[in-house]
Design goal:
The complex is a heterodimer of chains A (74) and B (229). Chain A has one helix and six strands; from the N terminus they run ββαββββ. With 74 residues, chain A is of the alpha+beta class. Chain A has a domain of 40 residues. Chain A is globular and about 45 Å long. Chain A starts with a strand and ends with a strand. With 229 residues, chain B is α+β, with helices and mostly antiparallel strands. Chain B has one domain. Chain B contains eight helices and five strands. In chain B, strands 1-2-3-4-5 form a five-stranded antiparallel beta sheet, sandwiched between helices. In chain B, α1 packs antiparallel against α2, α2 crosses α7 and α3 packs parallel to α5. The chains are: A alpha+beta (74), B alpha+beta (229). Chains A and B meet through β1, β3, β4, β5 and β6 of A and α3, β4 and α5 of B. β6 of chain A pairs antiparallel with β4 of chain B, so a sheet runs across the interface.
């Protein structure tokens, strides 16, 4: 089960979930993904071992995609 | 608390991501900044050392000269020595300030955010974060300690710490979510992260340790051990 999660004021929110054999679920996740990107969120795939990757398209095979807000110097 | 993501740490191998090694999007907001490479950081560190010496030596020297010329000038000499001591301490305080907890605690959302952050960390780092409030992350530039609104970088060798002021936009995030935001950005592009962040201080770890909250000091000690390894 892959999940699209947004880091937000609630701690985090699961926006969508899909499996490899669920094209409709994936399409719904893509729609939610694009909506959040349009709202200014940045999508990341945490790869473990201290690495993460910024993604602009929703990776179908990724187990977990995280949406974060931009950072800035304080 | 069980992991909020239902999986554990680095064992969660991820699917192939498109756009691998892409720079941080936030770099577009600071096009004038030079990339914070290891050479840039080393130069910045040397500049801070020179600045500290330049602030300290004149006051200490003036005190010595005053005492040599007129022992009755002791009070003025002591005031001069105090200046030589206080100014570097103020800079170290400014550096330690980046690691201090900031903003609302969000007691209802924080446990949820803490679970997610815990899932992003290995076991030892998770325990360290829960004790100190600092998430340890090893990188190419050194060993990082990510706080709620800033980050400390212990340079390789463990003899210098850089302090960065950086935060996730939006004041409504619970503390652990703020750390998770910074950690994800750091993991995606370490140099980009250091470039976007504001460099606040560089100095010896012992200078910073005295100004850190007591609960955070074990974090700095752990990072220094990693940096020396």
């Amino acid at each position: 089960m892959s999940r699209l999660i947004r880091l937000d004021s609630t701690g985090h929110s699961t926006l969508a979930a899909w499996t490899a054999d669920d094209p409709a679920g994936y399409e719904a996740a893509v729609a939610a993904f694009r909506e959040e990107l349009d709202a200014g969120y940045i999508a990341m795939v945490d790869e473990g071992r201290g690495r993460a990757t910024h993604v602009r398209e929703l990776p179908r095979e990724a187990e977990l995609v995280l949406l974060r807000r931009p950072i800035a110097g304080g | 608390m069980p992991g909020a993501l239902g999986a554990t740490g680095p064992a969660r191998a991820r699917g192939k991501a498109e756009g691998a090694a892409a720079p941080l999007p936030e770099l577009a907001n600071v096009p004038w900044r030079r990339p914070a490479t290891s050479a840039w950081l080393a130069a910045r560190g040397r500049l801070w050392t020179l600045w500290t010496v330049a602030m300290t030596i004149p006051f200490a020297g003036a005190a010595a000269v005053l005492l040599a010329l007129e022992p009755l000038s002791l009070p003025v000499a002591l005031a001069s020595v105090a200046h030589a001591w206080i100014i570097p301490e103020l800079y170290a305080f400014r550096g330690a300030n980046v690691a201090r907890p900031k903003g609302a605690r969000h007691p209802r959302a924080e446990p949820v955010a803490q679970g997610l952050l815990g899932d992003l960390l290995d076991h030892d780092e998770r325990e360290l974060q829960r004790r100190t409030g600092l998430a340890l992350q090893r990188g190419e530039l050194g060993t990082w300690l990510v706080a709620e609104a800033g980050a400390l970088l212990v340079a390789p060798g463990g003899r210098r710490v850089h302090c960065f002021c950086v935060r996730a936009t939006g004041a409504d995030l619970p503390p652990s979510d703020r750390i998770a935001h910074l950690l994800l950005a750091l993991r995606a592009d370490e140099e980009g992260f250091a470039t976007v962040a504001n460099h606040a201080f560089a100095g010896a770890p012992w200078r910073l340790r005295r100004r850190l909250d007591a609960a955070m000091r074990p974090g700095l000690r752990a990072a220094a051990i990693y940096a020396r390894a």
